[in-house]
Specification:
Length: 342
């Protein structure tokens, strides 16, 4: 018998009837942890592996495919430092193979791993190793770029330098990504969106997807400044949308860094609450980029700190209620399938 952890009990306080349960969904952004080498002694509350993913994807919505995004798991423990992130691709590929034993459940069809773009042109060898270990599932990389001068805000786990998108060495690495026809998942904060635009213009053939709306912050110096941040963010999103090679993952707004504080409450968020609080971000993003360049994402289990999986996708369906069937198809599955070729 599986022991239910305290966080799951907290999430289960909010139950909702599933909206439009047959709508096909591809979740283009989730994580898995910890990898086997880190799993000893890890509590259920801090674990998210295949059975945990499937518990969420089987919770009522029609989830058919997913894309894993790097989170520092399964790195090789020996060998050259530059090659260690390739272990994550190997780890997730093994999980994806395991998932094939139950084809009626959501399948991990895409893998986005990490490679250090600061290696410059020599990163090609790392990318080729990812391709080999990915067995057709490896689609691209994410080199976290989120950086803020405030000590109250945590920078990306890849420890980026300031203005990393504009750095010559970084761009030499990006050039190799471009040459290999791989994708770039961009994770940065809202103050860096304009720098991502400059990178996108420098590599017009590179397919880039901005993660989590471009990270509108709501903690530290940005606390209680939601309208001010929204104004800066919305203009930056308008400008980024001019780059036709850039797509947008719309989700990931329920993280603690976004400042809503839902993870501290006695009850998690409802779908209506998410629509009321975050709806204008979604509608502005879709208006700017269009449905063919936007994809709903769960960002689980990070956003799971604030809201449950079925409630989150209910919120997405409420946000898109007035959209056409074709627009919904893109937002919930086709944009992700086309971007990642899955």
């Amino acid at each position: 018998m599986e022991i239910q952890n305290d966080h799951q009990k907290w999430l289960d306080q909010v139950e909702e009837e599933i909206i439009d349960p047959d709508l096909k969904i591809v979740d283009p952004h989730h994580h898995l942890w910890p990898a086997p080498s880190r799993s000893e002694g890890v509590s259920p509350e801090n674990r998210y592996l295949l059975k945990d993913l499937w518990k969420d994807t089987d919770s009522g919505h029609n989830l058919v495919k997913t894309v894993f995004v790097e989170c520092g798991q399964g790195f090789f423990e020996t060998g050259p430092k530059a090659m260690k992130p390739v272990g994550e691709t190997k780890f997730v590929c093994e999980v994806a193979e395991q998932a094939k034993l139950s084809l009626s459940k959501a399948q991990i069809e895409g893998i986005v791993s990490h490679a250090d773009m600061m290696l410059g042109s020599s990163v090609r060898e790392v990318l080729e190793a990812h391709i080999e270990y990915g067995k057709g599932r490896f689609k691209g990389i994410r080199h976290g770029a989120s950086w803020d001068e405030s000590e109250e805000i945590r920078n990306s786990h890849s420890n980026p330098i300031r203005h990393i998108y504009l750095d010559d060495q970084f761009q030499q690495g990006i050039e190799q990504l471009d040459l290999l026809n791989l994708t770039l998942d961009a994770w940065n904060y809202h103050s860096q969106i304009n720098e991502l635009k400059q990178l996108a213009k420098a590599f017009p053939n590179l397919k880039i997807v901005q993660n989590h709306f471009g990270g509108p912050l709501g903690i530290g110096p940005y606390k209680d400044k939601k309208e001010e941040v929204f104004s800066v963010w919305s203009e930056a999103i308008n400008e980024l949308a001019e780059c036709k090679n850039v797509y947008l993952k719309i989700g990931g707004l329920a993280m603690p860094i976004n400042g809503w504080g839902w993870h501290k409450r006695s009850k998690p968020a409802t779908s209506d609450e998410l629509v009321e609080s975050h709806g204008k971000y979604y509608l502005h993003a879709i208006k700017s980029f269009g449905s063919t360049r936007c994809m709903f994402e769960s960002n689980f289990p990070v956003d799971k700190r604030s809201i449950s999986y079925p409630v989150l996708w209910n919120a997405f369906k409420k946000i898109s209620l007035e959209f056409s069937d074709e627009e919904k198809d893109y937002l919930f599955s086709k944009t992700a399938e086309e971007f990642y070729s899955i």
